[in-house]
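Example complex used in Figure S2.
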Amino acid sequence: MSANLAAYATSTGEAFQFWVLGTVAVVGALSTILMRKAVHSALSLAGTMIVLAVFYLANGAYFLGIVQIVVYTGAIMMLFLFVVMLVGVTAADSLKETLKGQRWLAVACGLGFGILLAAGIGNASLTEFAGLGTANSAHGGNVEGLAALIFTKYVFAFEITGALLITAAVGAMVLTHRERTERARTQRELSEQRVREGKHVPPLPAPGVYARHNAVDIAGLLPDGTAADLTVMGTLRKRGQIRDVSTEAMADLKALEQRSEERLGRDRDEEEATR
Amino acid sequence: MDNLIALLIAAPLLGALVLLLGGRRLDKSGHWLGTLLAAVSFVIGLVLFADMLGKSADDRALHQTLYTWIPVEGFQADMAFRLDQLSMTFVLLITGVGTLIHVYSIGYMEHDERRRRFFGYLNLFVAAMLLLVLADNYLLLYFGWEGVGLASYLLIGFWQHKPTAATAAKKAFLVNRVGDMGLSIAIMLMFTTFGTFAFGPVFEASGQASEGKLTAIGLMLLLAACGKSAQVPLQSWLGDAMEGPTPVSALIHAATMVTAGVYLIVRSADIFDAAPDAQLVVTVVGAVTLLFGAIVGCAKDDIKKALAGSTMSQIGYMILAAGLGPIGYVFAIMHLVTHGFFKAGLFLGAGSVMHGMNDEVDMRKYGGLRKYMPVTFVTFGLGYLAIIGFPGLSGFFSKDKIIEAAFAKGGTEGWILGAVTLLGAAITAYYMTRVMLMTFFGEKRWQPAPDADQAPSAEPAAEHAAGAMPHPHESPKSMVIPMILLAVGSVAAGAVFEFAGFVEWLEPVTGFEHGHSPVSAAAVTAATVAVMVIGVGLAYLQYGRRPVPVVAPRGSLLTRAARRDLLQDDFNHAVFVTGGTHLTRSLVYVDHSLVDGVVNGTAAAVGGLSGRLRKLQNGYARTYAVSMFGGTAVLIAATLLMRAV
Amino acid sequence: MNPVNYLYLAALLFTIGAAGVLIRRNAIVVFMCVELMLNACNLAFVTFSRMHGNLDGQIIAFFTMVVAAAEVVVGLAIIVSVFRARHSASVDDASLMKL
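Predicted assembly (1019 residues):
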């Protein structure tokens, strides 16, 4: 099989695979840029990347194909998902363009760029595969071949990328790390502070009070039926992810009253009838 | 002996430094130190004079080079001094009269808190003036020239708490600047023409230079002389300079500094001799100023300003004489020296009168003072007789010679100049008699002091409290003795010069020719005496026979104009101030519309362009990404095109 | 099948990624589009490797992945701290050179 994949000509199977999976890849790419929710974009991109991994395998790059799945799809895309979750998974972006002329320029540039690139490729003189058979077998396989190159010809670049990775890891820690410069206050101290300030002397109310929900993003209702934002945790409040069900509750209450009135009215009618 | 020349200057300079830097601890003794050092300079001058008399006429000139002042390749200025007969005359005048006035100031400035500073400035002046007359090149002369200008500025504005004094000092400084510009241009012209500005080489080379250049240099030197010596058209500062303390007026603005212009012209005799056109202009300036000053002097009621007009007029005589060439140089200097004596004496007398009259300067409020101030009356009277040219007194000899020389100029010019000088003599007699009569004769017209605050601080406030009647008294000895000595000089100087051979004394330096007057010397003398008598008589008729009104009558058009200094300030204002303002405004307009228009237009164009370009620079990373992306596309297109070609 | 088809696909994906960078405002999505562009390049490199019969193209693609990983780590850290500071992940919000 591997010999076939690395052969000069491409098999019909590969051509079939290319057209099917290529379509999938393009659709995935398009949905990456067109989905309103970041999490959908991330998933579409992950799909595209898996397709690309298959193409790598098809092109005889076994090592890269696996790395693509493990590192890219497995690690990097998951990292993206983490960040998406952190930023707010439900937040949907507006796709309405705010910069004047930006979209037209982008489309024009993209079309021009794509056409030029295609023209360049169309002019390419090499229209056949040389195949990787000899290259892969020289050291006993694709991985060994890559290793031989990495540790001989590209050893300095390899070392430097190692340094780059370490720098990036340290950099990411530095960027996201926040040093706590003072001792975290205890619960007792917090409540004492509340009393001293005279605001919210009792602990903050739990969500869902006077409501028939107890999800964390649903504000409790005050006796007059309005939502009390204080009952929702600060993070959600800042993100604006409070689900307001007060109107629903009020409508329910109204329906209840109406039903009971109807019931009572009917009872009265029955009483009058019996009388 | 050569080495003593620098000491002449060093003594007063040391005094100025010590007094000005010494601080308050010298307040009690400073005036003695200043006077002593001026006297030391005078004694050194006398020693040098005695030495000079012992030599033959041709090698009397002394030279001393201290060091090279500005050593630049092709531009050498030495700190070099020349002491010849001309400088010697000035040295004795400056240090002699200067010392007397130092002594006088001890009494006059007795109650001034800043007396030490006053003496420091006086010493500074003496040093600068000596530097001016002793310099052996024009650049060093310029240094002294500016030095006396500075001292004059400081001393006119000595009572700078009075706005009038401060303004007068500024005015003197500014007007002098115009003249100084002339001197600096003259020095530059000399340097380009002769390649040097040392006296000796310049005078030697002045025969060969083209007349046009010499005329230009001469006119520039004349401009300088006009500024320093208050000649038309730069005369306007002298009247206001009387705001300074009276000893200053006597020393600087009568006897010495204002005659520096005459010195400059006589010193540059070789240049003027080779430029007859410049000489003619000199005589015209002298003649005009002569009449101008005299007319102004007739109308002024302020005793010092009347004397200032007289000074202007007398210097006009000197300038006129200096413009006559070799027939006049000697007499210009002779009149300068005699004038130094009698005018200093007159000013000191005026100061003495003011001292006794609560610093009142209006002659209409004097009258009958001869009984109260006998010594002042006698010394002032002798100075008066000297200036009007009373036969036998110093002014008689010197002025008579100038009138003679004016006639000797020859031709129509000679007649005109002679007539002008005679007319000037008559007017001189008239206004000096007027001053004399209004001050010392007639009935008392004293007025109570209007306001103690207006009086300068020279006097203690107690002596002239508001409303107090003046009680004139003779001045203290320190003031009287210099006046007596100067009166002696006023009487005797002319005769001494006439009979001791002043002409032969100066001849080696300035040259001398006997003029061939169309009128005989005796006739000129007779005419001079006659016009003097006429002038005195007219004044007597007007001021001696009739009482003098305390409030000045309106007077004729000429009188009113003369009271306003013949409209000199109005003229300057109309021509230079208004003209300058208009010029400046139009320049500002051009600057605003044209220059700023170009600049602002460029700025607006750049600004507009930038405003448009700024829209590209909107801060949105995506916009920049578009341009990067577009740029990449263009690069690809270029690459493909290159390959296709 | 013509092997150049892989290159056309790579070009198409790259262009789509670039357009996404230009169009989207969410920094995370923009970042994903950058990753898409990098992957398109990798596909081209791998194809070149096969076309020319040597492994250097794969090596380059390998390094690209490493660098992309480093870039993602730092980039996401930046996005997180920006989000902390201004509660927004929009690239348009950061249009001034100050907070």
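Confidence is low (pLDDT under 50) at residues 452-465 of chain B. Chain B touches chain A at residues 618, 620, 622-623, 626, 629-630, 632-633, 636-637, 639-640, 643 (CB under 8 Å).
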